[in-house]
Structure formats: C-alpha cells, structure tokens
Amino acid sequence: MKRITLKTICLLTASVFALLLPLCVSISLADEDFHIISARYGVPGNYWDVTQTLKGFVSDHAISMQVTNQNLDADPAPGKEKEMVVVYQSHDAKVELHVPEGDWFVVPSPNAGYQPPHHGPGKLEIIRALYGAEGKYRIVTGDVQNHVQNNNINMLVSNENLGGDPSPNHEKEFVVIYQKQGREYGTHLHEGSWFIVTD
C-alpha cells in the first residue's frame, strides 16, 4: 500500500508540475511584454530619476499616466516646462519617448481590445486614445483611427466624433498616442479642440 501511495503521489506531483510549468512560462513572458527601463524628468541639464515612481503606475502590463509634478513627486525645474524621457521595453522593441509636462504617457495592455492595423513604415497609426473626465474615460482608439484619411487626420474632439459622452456635464479631455514616420508621439487635448496630424 505504501508503495502504491508513494507512486501515486509522485505521479500527481509530476502532473501538477507539468500543468504549472506552462503557466509559469506564460507569466514570465507576460512580464516581458512591457516594462519600464528608465525614466527621467526635468529640463536639459537638470533631470531627476523617476524610474521607480513611474513603475508604480504600471498595471496589467500597461500604463496610463499624466506627466505632472504631482504624479512624479518631483519638480526639478520650478517655473519651467519640463519633459519626461522614458525608455521602455514593449515585446521585442526598446522605445524612447519624450513626453512634455501635462501630456499623457499611455502604453496599452496587449488585451486592451482594439489593436491598430499595421500600415507599414511611415504611415499614421493610432496606438491608444482615451476620452473622458472625472475618472470616467472611454477607449476610443477605433473611433480615432476611423478618421484617418490618406495618412493624415483632422478631427474635432467631440462627443459626436468619439462615440458619445462618457462624462456628462463635464469638460472632457482627449489623450492619444500615435505613431508617424516610425516615431511615437503623445497629445493631450480638451473637448472642442482639433486633433490634426499632417505630412
């Protein structure tokens, strides 16, 4: 009986290990989908390291954060317009992005729903777009992509163009990350503004 029990236990242990191994590998791979390598905030000649602070905003292998003194817990150059220079790994690509103070740094989760089609080098691609106010934001990436014509966009930031009003009676804001000529850009606009990208 002891020999049978021991053999059963060994078989069960091996089976559990076999089941958990792919899960562990998938978790490890998921962790590599997106991570912050470095981040600094300030003006040329005076940057502060904010890497650990920025990492605190990462959730579910994605990030959506406005670049402000409050969020980064730093003001290396009071009274001056600063920028955040962030280097991050996304799948197999290493990306360096300069985000002006007040703009949004957004990298979507791989499971965020709409994924922009790949149009080839130099084309305009909407990577991620959010619209809303007071903590109520809607993902409007697809709506924005639909306004791209001939590799350009000229779109009024409005409820009508962005699929409705996610936060009635509040002035909304529009946050978009897009790629053009192989480079990523971020823009933060208010309701009623125009989002324009041309050649």
Helix content: 10-25%
Report how far the terminal alpha carbons are from each other.
78 Å
Strand content: 35-45%
**Order of H and E elements:** HEEHEHEEEEEHEEEE
Arithmetic mean pLDDT: 78
Radius of gyration: 22 Å
Query: How many E strands?
Result: 12
Q: Name the shape in a single word.
A: globular
Report strand order across the widest sheet. Answer: 2-1-4-5
For the biggest sheet, the summary is: 4 strands, antiparallel
Structural class: alpha+beta
**What ranges have pLDDT less than 50 throughout 5 or more consecutive residues?**
8-31, 112-120
Question: Any overview of this molecule?
Answer:
The strands form 4 sheets. A 4-stranded antiparallel beta sheet has the order 2-1-4-5. The protein has a 4-stranded antiparallel beta sheet with strand order 8-7-10-11. Strands 3-6 form a two-stranded antiparallel sheet. The protein contains 4 helices and 12 strands. It starts with a helix and ends with a strand. The model is unreliable at about 10-30 and about 110-120 (pLDDT under 50). The protein has helices at about 1-35, 50-55, 70, 140-145, and strands at about 35-45, 45-50, 65, 85-90, 95-100, 105, 125-135, 135-140, 155, 175-180, 185-190, 195. Helix content is about 25%, strand content about 40%. The longest helix is centred in the N-terminal third of the chain and has 32 residues, at about 1-35. It has a domain at about 115-199. A hairpin with a 2-residue loop joins β4 (about 85-90) and β5 (about 95-100). About 20% of the residues are buried. It is globular, with a radius of gyration of 22 Å. With about 200 residues, the chain is of the alpha+beta class.
